[in-house]
Recover the amino acids of this structure.
């Protein structure tokens, strides 16, 4: 460091290295720059100090969600998180997403997240074949509007990491999987709403949600998973889903 460089021009960054079974936080000094994102900081460490630092990123513009990490204790997209908005006394603490196993350093294992999508029947159940006429949807119906409210999820797992219920109950399906299930329940092109409701109303399903709201608070695209889970609770208790009502 140059003797002319002021201490305030440097960030004190602590980064998780290793895995959950054997790891530690390590300190780094990173230049503090204007319009700097947390992903810029992580990349600078990897490019200038330690090339073995492992992390994920792709688009860098908030489209893919792959750069999600825990920053000063909160899950965030690091590509869209400006350092000046989250640093505390010129310090940052960067860790992998919570509630998921750690593969290495800042890379979380996403398998449990997507396995719960499968368990929640979060896949389209076709009601027609490619040989049938394309179903015409009315965008003004209640079902379509409910489906559209949650359809923009990009699977970044920020809500999953923020979820207090998952932290206490690893079997809980989680807000993203349940939100996907709610989208499909309201999709008139999806044939099997009943099988979805059965899948999400069992052990670890929608009724395990405590409605703390962390999922909605931290969603980077401002979706409302808590509202979707509430919809599933009501529909599963009713025991049926009346389309068009």
């Amino acid at each position: 460091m140059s003797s002319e460089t002021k201490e305030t021009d440097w960030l004190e960054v602590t980064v998780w290295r290793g895995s959950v079974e054997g790891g530690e936080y390590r300190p780094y000094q990173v230049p503090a720059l204007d319009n700097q994102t947390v992903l810029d900081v992580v990349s600078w460490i990897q490019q200038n100090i330690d090339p073995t630092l492992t992390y994920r990123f792709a688009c860098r513009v908030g489209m893919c969600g792959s750069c999600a990490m825990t920053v000063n204790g909160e899950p965030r997209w690091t590509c869209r998180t400006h350092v000046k908005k989250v640093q505390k006394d010129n310090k940052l603490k960067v860790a992998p997403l919570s509630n998921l196993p750690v593969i290495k350093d800042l890379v979380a294992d996403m398998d449990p997240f997507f396995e719960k999508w499968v368990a929640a029947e979060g896949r389209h159940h076709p009601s027609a074949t490619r040989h049938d006429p394309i179903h015409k949807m009315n965008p003004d119906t209640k079902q379509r509007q409910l489906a559209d409210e949650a359809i923009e999820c990009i699977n970044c797992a920020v809500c999953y990491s923020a979820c207090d219920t998952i932290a206490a109950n690893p079997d809980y399906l989680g807000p993203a999987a349940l939100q996907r299930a709610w989208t499909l329940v309201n999709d008139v092109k999806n044939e099997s709403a009943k099988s979805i409701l059965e899948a999400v109303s069992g052990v670890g399903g929608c009724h395990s949600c405590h409605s703390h709201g962390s999922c909605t608070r931290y969603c980077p695209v401002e979706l409302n998973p808590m509202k979707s889970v509430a919809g599933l609770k009501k529909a599963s208790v009713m025991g049926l889903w009346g389309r068009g009502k």
